[in-house]
Specification:
alpha/beta, 6 helices, 12 strands
Length: 210
């Protein structure tokens, strides 16, 4: 596996990914599974977030605890398919802020074209977690990270369900400082720029548009 890439091999993650991949999985089940899978991945992706100490009172006496400052975490969804990952992630870190990067892939060039960008304020004090189901050519991921870095967040992680060597290489070439978390890295791309075996178009399957 390439440096800076972590494949989350937890049995429940792999189980739900297999169910998600099936072409017979209905839209309603695809949505449910994507939310469950995203929540499971969130535990791995956030395991080294910084903590701060707090003084609390238990029913028995005083002690010192540790809290993650959820308001400092920003989930950045690459539209439109990234929306499907948000609910699961937010179920684990409900205090997180949410940013959006709107991109579409030009059918001829496969290049990413931006149409929307909105982030919370004070990104310099925030940890950004970029979410998008598929890391295929990597062009959308690179474009999103280019724009996100203009806001100078404290840290950046990139999360996808399924990637491929071409997408990983592209992202690592342009943003070697950004760690990649994935449930699987598949064999490659077909002539249309889709991951093989992949799971099809995640946006279409989530929104029921095909």
């Amino acid at each position: 596996m390439a440096a800076g890439v972590e494949v989350i091999g937890h049995p429940l993650v792999q189980h739900k990914l297999t169910l998600l991949r099936r072409k017979t999985t209905s839209t309603v089940d695809f949505r449910r599974l994507l939310g469950e899978l995203s929540a499971l991945m969130a535990y791995e992706v956030t395991r080294d977030l910084p903590l701060h100490e707090v003084a609390i009172e238990t029913p028995v006496g005083p002690t010192t605890g540790h809290l993650v400052d959820g308001k400092k975490v920003v989930f950045v969804a690459i539209l439109r398919a990234g929306i499907g990952i948000l609910d699961g992630m937010l179920s684990v870190v409900p205090g997180a802020r949410v940013g959006h990067v709107g991109l579409y892939r030009d059918a001829q060039t496969l290049r990413a074209v931006e149409y929307y960008f909105r982030m919370p304020r004070d990104m310099a004090s925030r940890d950004a977690i970029v979410v998008d189901p598929m890391l295929a050519t990597g062009n959308s991921a690179v474009a999103a990270l280019d724009r996100l870095k203009e806001t100078r967040p404290r840290s950046i992680r990139y999360v996808c369900l399924v990637g491929c060597p071409e997408g990983v290489a592209n992202l690592r070439k342009h943003h070697p400082d950004v760690p990649i978390f994935a449930a699987a890295i598949d064999s490659g791309l077909n002539d249309h720029g889709y991951i093989v075996p992949g799971l099809g178009d995640a946006g279409d399957r989530y929104f029921g548009t095909k």
